[in-house]
Structures are given as C-alpha cells and as structure tokens.
C-alpha cells in the first residue's frame, strides 16, 4: 500500500501532484486536533459510568473550557473538521489514474463517511437546534444544556438516539484506528518504535474496549436515571430534537 495515498497498487514510479501532497498534509495536520477534541468530548459519557449524569455534566463543562469558547470552537473543532473532510474529498476528486484514490469500500473511507453523517446530525441536534430563540425552544443556554438533554432524548426516542450515539462513537473510533496507522506509516515507522506498535486488529480491540464500550455503558447508565429537570425544560428539549425531521417521523 502506498503510505501517502493509501492505495493498493499505486504505481511506484508515479509521484503525487503538488495539490495532492498539500491536501494530504492538511489531513495529517488536522488529525491530532480532531482526535484531541473527540477524547475530551467522549470523556463525559464515559464518566457517567462512575457518577451518572451529574458527573457527566461536570466533565462536559470542563471540556467546554477547551473547545467551546468564542474562537476555540472555530480553531480547534470546526476548522479542523471542515479542513479534514474537504481535503479528503479534494484528494478523491483530484487523484490521477496512475495514483487512484483509496477504494470507496475501504474501512477508512466508509468509517469517514459514516462519521461525517453521524457527526452532522449530532452537531445539529446538540449544538445548533437548542439555540433557536423562537418558542417553544427559547434558546436553551449553555448552563441549561447538560446531560439532562441527553437523558430526555434517550427517554423519548430510545432506539433512534441509541443508534445515533453508538454509530457515531463506532465510526469515529474505527476511523481513528486506521488513520493512526497511516500516520505511523508515514512519519514514525521503523526504528525503536517498530517493536511495540500494535497491529491493526489489536488497535481495533483497544478502541472497542477502551472507547466504544465505555461510552455505550455510560449511555445505558444515563438512560436508567430518571429525568431530573422541570417539565417545562423537558418540553424545550423535545422541541429542539423535533426540529430535525428524523425525530418527527421516528
């Protein structure tokens, strides 16, 4: 496999164009920012295993200090995510016949597409729609948008939200597993690191046991808790969810 383009069978004599090199570098540079944000963000549902929604909300508030500031969200989250996704699309469009893009059916590509779809839904439901000022939502503020919002969604739409949370977590984790392997092959491979670097299957198991499973069990812990907020707030939460068509038809 070509370490730069990640494509089996690429011609060894061919060289990637300047634009492909640039887009590849953008993808690689933005990856650590995205991974850091995801680890900080997922720490909240994982912490629910140990202290329920109260602990999860507190951890989430701490995480917001990192990424949800006036400029921080744009520079540390939205910017890297947009640059990463658009660069990946650009590479696919601009790749030449002698250096074709990674197959659309590859694990990295499929997990990336799935992650983008799930993340778009997640961002709209948890970040954009609750800020609508019109009634009945009345702009749910940051202090009000805690894990009671998540619990309300799980109580009202248990199957849909379980699928969305599980799908997002699994897609992101598997994308990172393969992405880390590519970064290792390009920048680190060889030398003293070679002996301890885990195989892809091992990395998948670690991601499953260390990230996906704790997030899912944390969500189960949250779903088992009673909703501990005012009925009027629950109505505002539900109204925010219903702004997305999925929640009106399922």
From TrEMBL:
The chain crosses the membrane at residues 22-44, 163-184, 205-223. The keyword tRNA processing does not apply. GO terms for biological process: lipid homeostasis. Residues 118-197 form the Mitochondrial adapter protein MCP1 transmembrane domain. Keywords: Membrane, Transmembrane, Transmembrane helix. SUPFAM superfamilies: Fumarate reductase respiratory complex transmembrane subunits (SSF81343). It holds the Pfam family MCP1_TM. The keyword Membrane applies. It comes from the Eukaryota. GO terms for cellular component: membrane. PANTHER family: MDM10-COMPLEMENTING PROTEIN 1 (PTHR38409), MITOCHONDRIAL ADAPTER PROTEIN MCP1 (PTHR38409:SF1). This is Mitochondrial adapter protein MCP1 transmembrane domain-containing protein. The lineage of its organism: Eukaryota, Fungi, Dikarya, Basidiomycota, Agaricomycotina.
